[in-house]
Amino acid sequence: MLTQAPKGTKDMLPQDAYQWQYVEAKMRDLAARWGYREVRTPVFEHTELFQRGVGDTSDIVTKEMYTFLDKGERSITLKPEGTAGAVRAFIEGKLYNEALPCKMYYLAAPIFRYEKPQAGRLREHHQFGMECFGGKEPTVEAELICALFELLGGLGLKNLSVHINSIGCPECRPRYHQKLKEYLGERISDMCPTCQERFAKNPLRILDCKEEKCKQIVKDAPSILDCLCDDCAGHFEKLQTLLAARNIPFALDPRIVRGLDYYTKTVFEIIMQSGREGLALCGGGRYDKLVEELGGPATPAAGFGIGIERILIELTSQGLLPENPGITDVYVANLGADMAVPAFTFTQALREKGVKADCDVCGRSLKAQFKFADKVNAKYVAIMGGDEYARGTVKIRNMQTREEVEFSLETAAEETAALLK
Ligand code: HAM
Fold first, then answer.
1. Residue scoring higher pLDDT (168 or 160)
2. Nearest to 232 by CA among 162, 145, 138, 146
3. Which residue's CA lies nearest to atom 18 of ligand 1?
4. DSSP code of residue 5
5. Which of 21, 52, 243, 418 has an alpha carbon within 20 to 30 A of 65's alpha carbon?
6. Is residue 6 part of a domain?
7. Is 3 inside any structural domain?
8. Residue 314: pLDDT band with limits 50, 70, 90
């Protein structure tokens, strides 16, 4: 127990850190070019934020939240998603008084959901999300979807298709609920208990059920796209025109309703390619009522969240991860304990020149130091000691070609750094 991480959590071990950093660097670069600035919100918030924001009929709120009372008897919840916290920060920071739209992103934000763990489904995962406040036009969703394509395409992922839908607004959605309930009326007793519950509270969510018998019934249900009001229909139409103008492949998918209650109009998902049924790589949409619902001024908004672990699964399964860059370019070996100080100072000098350098800290023999240098794939080994040191020089060995050069100790750090350029 003591040496086992809690179920559904995963360490990022040092040897894998470069994979995360590779993906995260692409995300930061993307966000900067799209005009999004970083936001960091607390890992926990008042439970009410998620009850009001994400919705108390959603699976996330009813079944999956990590909620506890703190020592002051306040109900606290570990963030089960990133949007509600971003909205709370937008309101609390009065960002609505600044130039709008206000675009923000969060990177590698830890998200907690008490789900049944499986490949790609964790109890703690990390999201990159982009949220835009103050833009009511579908250009916002179009630019978010374009950003996702650029990000995933830039990582080498191919054959991406975004599934888009519109789930209407408080004006047209009740009409659809009515129509759906009429269709489901006599069939609901054949559906799963969860759907029977959803029927009363949130019938839209029935469309998302993964149970085979429910899927069969829902297959011929009326489409929400036929019930949209003029405003929602026009918005959705424009979004499609914008995506087509950028040759973004998309599919209309009226079954996408999303697992969170705050969406209005556009919702979208990108599905994982690696055959993991039902797992989305990314999800997002418009949430025009949420800022107001949480106590801010009426502000249209839209965004997406993408799971970093799921991206890494895709990159691994498609062989798209870059090579491990290695931890040490130059290993400074000493020829004996009396050479430990010059080896140490030379290592520091190399680091100052921007070189990834290391030296012995374990009191190892020369042979063991070479073995270590091999293990960490050092490109060069600097050998500190012997006749060379007596002459005021240090020998640098190329570990691949075995070629050796000798540099004066005075200029060796600079010259070694130049070898690596
Ligand atoms: P979500 O679809 O619940 O949306 O999650 C977004 C992404 O997080 C998923 O597509 C997936 O990549 C990843 N993810 C979700 N749950 C897990 C899990 N248990 N294990 C691993 N990865 C997971 C949201 O959270 C919304 N806040 C997205 C959004 C932002 N909508 C508007 N703005």
1. 168
2. 138
3. 121
4. P
5. 21
6. no
7. no
8. very high
